[in-house]
Every structure is written in C-alpha cells, then in structure tokens.
Design the sequence.
C-alpha cells in the first residue's frame, strides 16, 4: 500500500537543518498515523521501501526529526513492543481570532495569543467566542500569517505541535523526568486543551511560575501538564491570595 500523496508541514520545509528527504520521511510517518491503526509502527525498512531509499538513510532522517522534536519515539507495549513514531506537527483546522492575522511575532515565533501587558500575574481569561466573521471563515482550511523574514508558515501546523513542545520543555525546571512527557499522549492532550482554552502566552506564564509556587506552603504542587489542567483553578486562587498578602491589586480572570 502506497500513499496517494504526502503532507509535509511548511515549518519543516523552512527548517535549514533538515534536507528534503527528512521532510518526506516525516510525511510518510504522518500518513501512517492517519491510517486505520491511527499510529505509525512502521520500521525503517518499511519506510525506506516506500521511498526507494536505504534504511540507514531513513534511520538518520528519523533520528534528526526526533532530535528536533518533530517526531517522538516510544515503545507501544500494546502492539508487541514495537516502536511508535508520533508526529508532533499536525494539521487541525480551527477558527482563530481575526486579530491574530496581523501579529508581528518576536523572533519569527507564532503564538496563539498576544502577550499580557501586565507583568504581575498571568490573566487566565475566558475562551474567545466565535464571531459571525469567524464562523464564515471556518470553511478556509489554512490561515497564514506573515513573519519578520517574509516567509509564510502555516499557523495551525505551528501551534498544534511546536507550541506543545515548547511548553513541555518548560517543565524541565520542575520535573527531572520531563523528557518522558513528550511521548505521553495524555500529557500532550492536557496541554492542547489548555492552549485551546487560554492561549500560548498565558499558559507559558503560568508554567514559568511553577518553580516558585511549588516551593511555597499550601500551593498546589504541579509537575506535569495533567496536574496543571486539574489544579489550575487552585493555583489561580493561591496566586490571588499571595498577591493580596502583598497589598497589591491584580485582576486574575478564570473560567472553569
């Protein structure tokens, strides 16, 4: 069985550390993940056979994609301890706030929300409701924004996998085993839900506070995305109480 075509995220195409074959290998892995099994358990030789390439060449591409965190490798114990390759940059059409179309990102990074102007505590806001204009735009399959180097990067591809990886990397300051989080679907799903509801910057600001709050008495101890999703309300209450102790006034908006 061969794919009719393969999808290569534009962020991989624009990555100067990757060669064209690396992107094609990613496309094959992504294709496998969309078949009936919904996961890629293919060996290097199976992928090489599709590409008419040597399996060692494919192995080098996969290793590079793993190091760049475009792929995550784990052992699938439900399928005979086979290697599973998980693509982290995926295509998921979503409606987005029209204001995002005019973002001028810092260092060519794409974010799902605009950074908070207040430097005290992160504001956890209620989810944005779709406007009529957004609803009419749902028919569009991709939305693109311009970055400083004038290249165009698919907004959805960037946010889905890359932002989750960036947030997971922040847990290294509070979790010595943080690297295991990358291959854990439950942890990735928890972060994806938080991203969808609150946006990248707000969640990043919250995670950046955890090394400090985890050391404080009565604060909820959070070392994983699943714990963050479950205890976010408790954390916001604790942060508000701490701010009130200092005599400051801060608006912390939170919706469960």
Sequence:
């Amino acid at each position: 069985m061969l794919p009719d075509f393969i999808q290569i995220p534009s962020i991989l195409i624009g990555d100067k550390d990757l060669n064209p074959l690396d992107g094609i290998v990613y496309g094959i892995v992504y294709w496998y993940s969309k078949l009936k099994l919904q996961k890629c358990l293919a060996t290097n030789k199976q992928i090489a056979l599709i590409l008419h390439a040597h399996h060692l060449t494919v192995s080098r591409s996969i290793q590079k994609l793993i190091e760049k965190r475009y792929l995550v490798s784990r052992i699938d114990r439900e399928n005979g301890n086979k290697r599973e390759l998980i693509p982290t940059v995926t295509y998921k059409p979503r409606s987005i706030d029209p204001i995002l179309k005019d973002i001028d990102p810092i260092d060519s990074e794409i974010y799902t929300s605009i950074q908070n102007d207040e430097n005290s505590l992160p504001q956890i806001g209620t989810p944005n409701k779709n406007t009529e204009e957004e609803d009419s735009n749902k028919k569009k399959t991709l939305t693109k924004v311009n970055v400083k180097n004038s290249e165009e990067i698919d907004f959805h591809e960037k946010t889905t996998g890359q932002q989750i990886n960036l947030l997971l990397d922040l847990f290294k300051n509070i979790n010595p085993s943080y690297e295991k989080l990358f291959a854990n679907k439950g942890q990735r799903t928890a972060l994806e839900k938080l991203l969808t509801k609150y946006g990248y910057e707000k969640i990043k600001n919250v995670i950046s506070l955890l090394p400090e709050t985890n050391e404080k008495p009565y604060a909820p101890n959070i070392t994983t995305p699943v714990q963050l999703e479950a205890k976010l309300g408790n954390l916001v209450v604790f942060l508000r109480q701490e701010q009130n102790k200092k005599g400051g006034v801060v608006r912390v908006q939170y919706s469960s």
